[in-house]
Amino acid sequence: MKILYSWLMDFVGNNLPVQDVCDKLVRIGFKLESLKKTGPCFDGVITGQILKIEKHPNADRLSLVEVNTGSRVFKIVCGAKNIAVGQIIPFASVGATLTTGALKKAKIRGIESEGMVCSAQELGLEQDSGLNILVLPENTPVGVDALKLFPETDYIFEFEMLPNQSYCLSHIAIARELCSFYNFPFKLGTLPIFLQENQKSEVPITIENPQYCMRYTGIVLRNLHAAETPQWMIKRLKAMDVNPKNNLLIDVSNYVLFELGQPTHCFDLDKLANQEIKVRLAAKGEVLVTLENQKLELTEDALVIADSKKPVALAGIIGGSETAVSDSTKNILMESACFQPVSIRKTSRKFGIQTESSYRFERGTDREITLYAAKRIAQLIMESIKDAKCAFIGDNYPEKYNPPVIEILPDKINSILGTNLENNQILAGLKAVSPDTNGNEKPWKFPVPSYRQDIETIWDVSEEVGRFIGYEVIPTATSMGLMKADATDSFKMISDIRNKLSAIGFKEVYNYDFLSSKELNDCMLDKMECIALENPISLDYQFLRNSMIAGLLKTLRYNLNRGQESVFIFEIGNIYKKINANCSGGITIPQTTGHKEQTFCAGLMFGNFLKEHFWKEQMQRADFYHLKGVMEHLFKDFEEFSMEKTQGQVPVFLHPEECLELKIRKLPAGFIGRISPVVCAGNDFKNNEIFYFEFSIEPLLSGFGKNKNINPVSKFPSSWRDLSVVLDSRHRWEDIKHVISASQTAGLTKIELIDVYKGKNIPENHISITVRLVFSSMERTLTDKEIDGYINEILASLSKHFNAKLRT
Amino acid sequence: MNPSEWKEKLFTIKENFFDSINNATPENIEAIEVQFFGRKGLLSLHLRDLKDIPIEERKILGHIGNSFKEESLGLLARKKIEFGSVRTGAGEKKSGPDLTLPGYPFPKGSLHPLTLTVNKLVEIFLKMGFSIAEGPFIEEDYYNFEALNIGEFHPSRDMQDTFYVDVKDLKNKNFLLRTHTSPVQIRAMKGTKPPLRIISPGKVFRHDAIDASHSFVFHQIEGFYVDRNVSMADLKWTLDTFIKELFGSAVRIRFRPSYFPFVEPGAEVDMSCIFCKSKTEKCSVCKGTGWIEVLGAGIIHPNVLMNCGYDPQEWNGFAFGAGIERLAMLLFDIQDMRIFFENDLRILEQI
What we know:
Distance between the termini of chain A: 91 Å
Radius of gyration of chain B: 37 Å
Low-confidence stretches of chain B: none
Strand order of the largest sheet of chain A: 25-28-29-33-32-31-30
Oligomer: heterodimer
Order of helices and strands of chain B: HHHHHEEHEEHEEHEEEHEHHH
Mean pLDDT of chain B: 90
Low-confidence stretches of chain A: 583-592
Distance between the termini of chain B: 71 Å
Helix content of chain A: 10-25%
Number of helices of chain B: 12
Strand content of chain B: 15-25%
Structural class of chain A: alpha+beta
Strand order of the largest sheet of chain B: 1-5-6-10-9-8-7
Mean pLDDT of chain A: 90
Shape of chain A: elongated
Number of strands of chain A: 37
Number of helices of chain A: 18
């Protein structure tokens, strides 16, 4: 919300410097977004007259201009198009100060310029006047200081208003806060004496639903004619970012809105059927065409202002076009009412219409101010239109404001704030907010002012005391005791995984949780399973991800496009799925009975392992076994961890032949594999050596955080033998290893595969494998003879199961 | 040679050696080495003489002789290093390995700056007795708004533009993506007996356009403490301690009155600007005010406590929340929030 400094000062008895106002308001909880200086912002500019204009010899768009300032004639280069001989203009000679800084001597396209003709923007008078120069009235004398021609400097504060600050949405309200919290005299202008309210019921006002309309004040003004809005008012409205209509009857309503915070509406009295006002709920089928020419089909829950026949305004939100004032309006009814916030909010939402008026009503307005506001409008109109007459003031106020009273124990306030304030300090704070606070006996009685509907409990009152005293008074001290603290298992587990992956070269990335339809298709993900946003930012972010793959491929592509050759990345985040989606047919809308959200860790490897280029050795390209090795490294401390060919379904984006399922305690946890060539092609990857892993965090938790036992090692030296055998290549290492370890050989402590060879000297469809077998005993050093015996046993077992032959 | 004669001669050699080594020059250092330790060097020959001495004494004298040899070789080596005359081969000059070649690469991964920030925060709060709690990202209206004193028609719903999803909860209301971490307060408090002291870092979502300081996906950390007699002073101490741990003990904080529907009294918390060192130039981070807004906080609203089944006359608490991206930007001097989700490895590998 914007506040104009000079307008604010109309109501503050002391003359406060701008910076002081800022600091004081920030301290009591106003969020200052910006402070802008308005009005002239220049020095050394004098008025001059254009004597002569010629084309610049070297530039089509520039002119050579001679300016007479009375004392001498200046020759300048000028780029403005709206110049003409005879114009009186603000002229800045070298050395003058403008918004753009001090003016220096300049040569423009080869010709020296002795100064410049100024635009309103350069003088700080307007924000975006463009290149056009400011042309002054013809009768302006030449050679005078231009500062004398413009009003004084002013300032615009812009505050971010919080939802509970409904009592602060006007100049008078901010002034009231300043004055009551800092004890300055609060100046409220006096209104002329009007006729008494409700004298004769010239325009009957009925409220059918007093629960939605707490008060309705109407003032009838007669004998009007089209009148221009006074300049001072236009300037203030412009400062509020309102485009003045230059029709006093409309502009004055806005003016009072910003001055008093009370929304008002002006009806052309002669267009109201039977000249009466009814506040009621709309009937079904009723229609209202708004000021914005929008046709609204009203519903029975919408509160309207109606004449004897039909709705003429959507209460508190927007007026109707039929009864709007025009240039020919002679008589008006000015509405100043108070409506129930939730009802206004509901209706405003329903019709999607938000106005300055609905904004204030839905936050709650002061029902005590409606009459004052109506009279203020009448005053402003009558000041401008001499013949105007106030013919009638109607004020329907079914239930007078009866302030709720909050009982205050000052100790409670001290205990909430953690302060040790004296009773009189607290009472002073309470009285600043509610002067009628009764502090004679405990509990003290705090009547809530009509404009402070946000105050309901002693907690709210404590905040007011805190604002009054200043939050800086609250001590930085505590008596908080020790408490046992712990991270969750999943937090610890995820930290562990992150540390392990980053330690072996993976970089952690964060992707958005949203995917587009295209991204889902490109990764062959199931759209029916996806949870969609009802109100996505754009189609690029329409679905919640049901897999981590799309984000990681996107990250891969982003980095390959920026010159990376190798990308090793991982991400930990949530994936989301609908469950039990009954999508039997193509067009039936899936009936969902729920959803699930799971935390996943996923990653991919592409390119050279370790580093892109390296002077010592050839780097290896990451392949499936790197991927597998990463998982083995990650899960080596988990009991019952395995990677197996899956019996079930493989994720569609993985290569069906190069994919394993991760299992923890025999339960599925995730997958590793090469990205399928179809998905690589679909995502425009030329190289399909992309290796991917994903696993869910939850199944891992049962195996995490167990204390590990440390086993003693033998004091005696161990012995090893390398055993090379040749066997049919259809045999799988896992089976071979199983047979070796099942041979029950005492003292076999380690089986390592150290070579796999195929080719020269090996029969077709056969492979040679070399296994290093390590033997040791806790009791003694094993003899060569014993070990030879073991080796023979193992060899026999291998030849029995796989027809393996010792490689010679 | 009898043992005492041998000892005496060793002593002479010793003196002789110290004398030589102290007056050694780069030119004669090699000669000194040959003189004493060469095949026919003084010390070498003398040690060889030990063979004629009876075994019992030989052991003792051998020990003395060898320790002198060790000591003197050490002195010689140090002198050579001093003269820079260490040679690889015997006298002949070689170019040696190029030690300026880069070392063999070890894999270097990295944690995301947001992860690093969360880790720092968690570490600080664990020390202060706060435990971690977590909650779902797809949340019910009840936990995200209703229970936090934000009724359906509360204007503060405007503060947080919400994403809704096409799945409905048991009350037939659309599920939403949580707009803040505060629903974890409700989930943690319900069914737990106070006192409790909790933090909850995590992802949140707002229907907001992306720019240098906004995103529709970002992270917050929530903290709260419920017990008997919890006050704004406890809150101030907690946040002051936290900010000083994170940004250094010179940083100050200030509380400004503010509003969040789930706290009362409410405060916004600024920290003194850590970037503007000079008074003459206008700092771009704090915009010349000297203060940076970092946290929202307050005393937990009695309605929130009641919604969780606590009696606000008996129990009270404080709560606070901060944007993790904001803290990460301050910690790592990042200007644009978008880099957190761009995943440019050239940026990520810097930390």
